[in-house]
């Protein structure tokens, strides 16, 4: 018989099996079971998810067990932290070997030291990939101590050392579905953007209207910048597209835009509310040193 590993990236599945187990598998979840001597199981799109519709992105791996384990008892597999750390160490070594080989190939055809840029979405490490921080730690230590083919460097430092390069303009693209912007601009989230454009224009208007604000006006301008940035977060249209928590995403967008609008009204009518501002500053306290003059 087999092991079954189910990974859900988008959407939601329901698991049922003949042993009486039932549960939901949502985004970022991994379900790992050993069917072995006999469990009938199914993983189907969850009823609630089916009703609200959305993108379902799933990978399911079936591992054929060696003969001596085929009649073992069915079970769910626990998370083995030490095995996972060993795997992260091995993966970091493999990634290092691949990059070293890539550097060697490029060095043969370029007239200057090659540079490899590897940008990643930070939430991949620890959120989508639980052992991601350990992978980075292993890789950086190995890159510094276990090889001399390349060295770690920032793009700015590389340009200081090698300032002459061919200029190229990358094509517009994204990591989203189909490689462009459809994930963030579609029939489920397009309503957000007219409101964001108006707020953006109002933010510029405010910064120009108050070039020398007093202390309270400056606090309001900073909070307006925070609310605008929070409303502009790409997570909200992404969640609306995938359908994972659409009510929450919709509420967050509206809440931040409403607070921004209230700040705009207070500043333009000179009817300031310090107590309300204090509460909002406590509630949305990200970017404590935000520079609202960027919108001038």
The parts where pLDDT drops under 50 for at least 5 residues are none
Distinct helical segment count: 9
Tertiary shape: globular
| H and E order | EEEEEHEEHHHHHHHH
Question: How are the strands of the biggest sheet laid out side by side?
Answer: 6-1-4-7
Portion of residues in beta strands equals: 5-15%
CATH superfamily of the largest domain: Families 57/38 glycoside transferase, middle domain
Taken together, the total number of domains comes to 3
Total E-strand runs? 7
Biggest sheet record = 4 strands, antiparallel
Task: Give the averaged pLDDT, no decimals.
Answer: 88
CATH class of the largest domain: Mainly Alpha
Task: Work out the radius of gyration.
Answer: 26 Å
Helix/strand structural class: alpha+beta
**Distance N to C terminus:** 66 Å
Helix content: 40-55%
CATH second-level architecture of the largest domain:
Up-down Bundle
CATH topology value of the largest domain: immunoglobulin/albumin-binding domain-like
């Amino acid at each position: 018989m087999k092991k079954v590993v189910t990974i859900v990236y988008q959407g939601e599945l329901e698991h049922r099996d003949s042993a009486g187990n039932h549960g939901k598998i949502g985004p970022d979840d991994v379900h790992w079971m050993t069917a072995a001597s006999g469990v009938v199981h199914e993983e189907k799109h969850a009823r609630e998810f089916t009703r609200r519709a959305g993108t379902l992105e799933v990978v399911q791996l079936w591992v054929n067990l060696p003969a001596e384990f085929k009649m073992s008892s069915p079970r769910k597999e626990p998370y083995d932290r030490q095995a996972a750390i060993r795997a992260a160490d091995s993966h970091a070594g493999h990634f290092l070997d691949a990059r070293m080989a890539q550097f060697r190939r490029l060095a043969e055809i370029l007239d200057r030291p090659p540079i490899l840029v590897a940008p990643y979405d930070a939430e991949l490490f620890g959120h989508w990939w639980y052992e991601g921080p350990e992978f980075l730690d292993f890789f950086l230590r190995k890159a510094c101590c276990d090889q001399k083919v390349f060295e770690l460097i920032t793009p700015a430092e590389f340009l200081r050392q090698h300032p002459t390069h061919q200029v190229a303009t990358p094509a517009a693209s994204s990591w989203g579905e189909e490689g462009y912007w459809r994930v963030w601009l579609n029939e489920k989230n397009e309503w957000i953007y007219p409101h964001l454009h108006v707020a953006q224009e109002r933010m510029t208007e405010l910064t120009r209207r108050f070039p020398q604000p007093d202390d309270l006006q400056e606090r309001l301008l900073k909070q307006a910048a925070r609310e605008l940035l929070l409303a502009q977060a790409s997570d909200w249209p992404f969640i609306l597209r995938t359908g994972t928590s659409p009510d929450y995403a919709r509420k967050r967008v509206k809440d931040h835009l409403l607070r921004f609008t209230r700040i705009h009204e207070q500043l333009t009518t000179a009817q300031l509310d310090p107590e309300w501002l204090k509460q909002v500053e406590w509630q949305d306290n990200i970017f404590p040193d935000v520079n609202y003059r960027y919108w001038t």
